[in-house]
# Entry
Amino acid sequence: MEVIIYSILIFIIGICFGSFFNVVGYRLPNNMSIAFPPSHCTKCNHKLGKLELIPIFSYIFQLGKCKHCGEKISIFYPIFEFITGVLFVVCYLSFKDTYPEVLNIIYALIFTSSMIIIMISDIKYMIIPNEVLIFFSVILVILKLYISYKLENINNFIDLGYELIFILKDGLIMFIIMYLIRLIGNFLFKKDSMGGGDIKMMTYVSFILGWKLSIVVVFIASFLALPLSIINMYKKNEHVLPFGPYLAVAALILFICKIDFNFLLNLLY
# Structure
């Protein structure tokens, strides 16, 4: 019963954060403040009231339209609010029995939040904001070091320094791998085959998952993106596809399921 109650509360918190993530994903790529001006209709600039800011339900009650001018509101917003709520609950259920419980849940929620913002921004504008990557990198690396300290894997500042070097090493290795993939792709396709944002994103992901598992993320994301790429190429004659959302989904699958590289290797034997 306690798990159900916590799950409901976390879902409510999640959809509220999802509403905020929509704002961040929309405003950062447009070089806008995430705080000012307050939430408003992008057509008539009507400032949204409290009843218009209730995640998911405001969209339903307003029939998907602005109450002031009747402009249609994209269903994109409630969908990502719902997705955020669900993912928050999944993170709680996945990490609630790990030690240290609260820190691991917070760590999971923060990483998941970063992936959601990246998905929103890349789908809308094909941009992965540097501010998001830098902010979450700093927060999660610090938290990762603190969790290692709590688990008594680190006993002094020297060990802490070594742990930080290992984390940064993963990022450097992954950056080099992604950059080489880009160079090879550019050579084969005679055009830019991968955005710089994807390279930086996977550098960030490697801080969390390590460079070996991050390579697996790229393979899974490529597999997930392939069908839509083919459809785009033949139906719309478009070859450009935001890759960030697929990378985010693949990273979340491995992260939330707590799959490590050795487990994947064992499956091959």
The mean pLDDT is 90. Residues 31 and 129 are 10 Å apart (CA to CA).
